[in-house]
């Protein structure tokens, strides 16, 4: 049986049997509904629904919910049989705390009885997906932005940077602005997220963004409940926040300046390779106009080498930037398990959860 690869993000879980150059078989929301049963069943309102996010800002925070989610994914969706569990490879965000790594490996061996385990960093895997072992990833997901320079398959941890902002904050920002421009309309946050994915965009530069103040195409959108809203400049504000974080109330440099600073803090013999292999990944980078704006700002950089973006190979699926960590995981799974570089049940029984720091790096 092929190993299963899992990239559990703050919004989307990508999972499937390792098959290089393909999209994951399963992409589903990580958010779960917990139904709480009241003792008094007589009343129809005895069922209450709560939503639970097992993963927040990239890290597992609710282990019971995570176990339930993985159970559903592995047995119900991917067809594992109890007693015949296979091998599994997890993607890990930057700077995953040691305790989180240990808890995951422990849960997989003790509660799922997996026959083998491996974990690898999302930045490294995203580069594998485009056939590289060196480069710098800018991963803008739902809960976080990770900028990670990677040389020869190893992350420069000291030079890497994690920001605790992501798509979820852009959704909030859009909600605030839409509420202001459509004061009579009550929009559910999940609808705002859909609007963001459909309409949000980036102006080509700061001047073009300023001009959206004077003129901007007006879109009219009917919500599922029949309410009608208009979207104008809000769509540009969302994209601009990545380049001007002050829009989000943050005193930070924009995304391109952050990238340049990260690479510049690595020793200089690596600069050319890192600057010339910048990879944009994570769902938020698929925002309309983002890549063009990023490249435009990169062209204006005063560093001696200008950042240039990796073009994904043509044979790869269109969704590559959204699923690159999973896809790289599928490539790696085809190497680590056949070559016995993974953690086996015997390794785990002998060494316990701390084995993960020895075998997976
Ligand atoms: N076209 C789009 N424009 C803007 N945002 C988008 C677009 N498509 C997807 N997104 C956003 O991308 C995010 C999901 O991306 P991704 O799957 O990379 O995140 P994740 O892996 O679940 O989270 P993380 O890696 O941060 O833990 C969501 O916030 C989603 O709204
Ligand atoms: Mg992710």
Automatic annotation (TrEMBL):
GO BP term, example: chromatin organization
Location in or out of the cell: Cytoplasm; Nucleus
SUPFAM superfamilies in alphabetical order: Actin-like ATPase domain (SSF53067)
Top-rank lineage group of the source organism: Eukaryota
InterPro entries for the chain: Actin (IPR004000), ATPase_NBD (IPR043129)
GO CC terms in record: cytoplasm; nucleus
Coiled coil: none
Record carries keyword Nucleus: yes
Pfam families: Actin
Keyword Aminoacyl-tRNA synthetase among record annotations: no
Keywords of this entry: Chromatin regulator, Cytoplasm, Developmental protein, Nucleus
Similarity annotation: Belongs to the actin family. Plant ARP7 subfamily.
Role: Essential protein required during embryogenesis and all plant development stages, probably through a chromatin-mediated regulation of gene expression.
Protein name, entry field: Actin-related protein 7
Annotated organism of origin: Iris pallida (Sweet iris)
